[in-house]
């Protein structure tokens, strides 16, 4: 049995918690290479961890008028970050960690801990369908909380609360090929 590694990259809207963009790549592709494809251009800010830090990316975001909320990475010479960068990283991290809730739902409720098909195209299509299902499951709750209805709706679950998430992050999942018969 041979396992293949795939990277799932997701762009999530902070206010609504909806998945705005997603990419599925082989693990040999560094996630920072495709991160720019997740930024659609109408965002106000991009929150990301240290993996996505590049001077060119910061400059491109500035030119497009998008606020740069990418965490800073320490360099080799000053072994530690300056104080203001450490504080900034903590503030960004609090917002950015909410994207893990999206992966938690995808892995828990939608069982995305393992890919079900062979090949990148089939798994990418499957993940696109999961992203659509995730967004549809969040939409009624968001709509019903904004427009108060007097009658209770079967679509609304009172135990669940709306969550805010960050702009993009990365998670690795495994692919298991089908056994040949």
Describe the structure in brief.
The chain is an alpha/beta fold and 181 residues long.
Annotate the secondary structure layout:
Layout: E1 4-12, E2 19-26, E3 45-48, H1 55-64, E4 67-70, H2 83-96, H3 99-108, E5 114-115, H4 120-146, E6 168-175
Explain what this protein looks like in three dimensions.
The chain is α/β, with parallel strands linked by helices and 181 residues long. It is 34% helix and 19% strand. It contains 4 helices and 6 strands. The protein has helices at residues 55-64, 83-96, 99-108, 120-146; strands spanning 4-12, 19-26, 45-48, 67-70, 114-115, 168-175. Helix 1 (55-64) links the parallel strand 3 (45-48) and strand 4 (67-70). It starts with a strand and ends in a 6-residue tail after the last strand.
């Amino acid at each position: 049995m041979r396992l293949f590694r795939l990277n799932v990259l997701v762009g999530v809207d902070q206010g609504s918690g909806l998945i705005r963009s997603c990419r599925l790549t082989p693990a040999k592709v560094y996630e920072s290479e495709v991160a720019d494809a997740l930024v659609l251009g109408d965002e106000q800010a991009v929150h990301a961890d240290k993996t996505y830090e590049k001077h060119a990316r910061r400059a491109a975001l500035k030119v497009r008028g998008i606020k740069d909320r990418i965490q800073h990475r320490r360099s080799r010479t000053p072994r530690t970050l300056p104080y203001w960068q450490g504080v900034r990283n903590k503030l960004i991290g609090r917002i950015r960690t909410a994207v893990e809730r999206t992966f938690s739902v995808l892995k828990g409720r939608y069982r995305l801990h393992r890919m079900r098909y062979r090949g990148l195209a089939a798994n990418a299509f499957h993940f696109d369908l999961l992203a659509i299902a995730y967004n549809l499951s969040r939409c009624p709750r968001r709509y019903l909380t904004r427009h108060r209805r007097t009658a209770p709706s079967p679509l609304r679950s009172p135990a669940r609360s709306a969550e805010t998430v960050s702009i993009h992050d990365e998670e690795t999942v495994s692919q298991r090929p089908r056994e040949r018969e």
